[in-house]
Amino acid sequence: MRDLRLEKGQGLVEYALILVLVAVVILAVLLILGPIIGNTFSKVNSDLESVSYVFQMF
Asked: Which helix or strand (DSSP H or E) is residue 58 part of?
């Protein structure tokens, strides 16, 4: 019985390590792709503003 408790604790630690690894990967991806995504949204926003300005002239 004592071995079963140790294995449960070990499994919990393994799940926690996997969760931390997934969080680190997500954070790294967001740090790398964040500026690229922000620039894309800024460009789309400026394009939409220019189109909106053209329609307001009519």
From this structure: none
The encoded tokens of residue 22 equal 């997934």
Domain range for 19 is 1-58
Q: And the tokens for 43?
A: 């460009």
All residues at 6 or more sequence positions from 37 whose CB lies less than 8 Å from its CB, including other chains: none
Distance CA 36, CA 32 (A): 8
The strand ranges marked E within the chain are none
The count of structural domains within the chain is: 1
The pLDDT of residue 31 is: 95
Q: Give the residue ranges of the chain where pLDDT is below 70.
A: 1-9, 53-55, 57-58
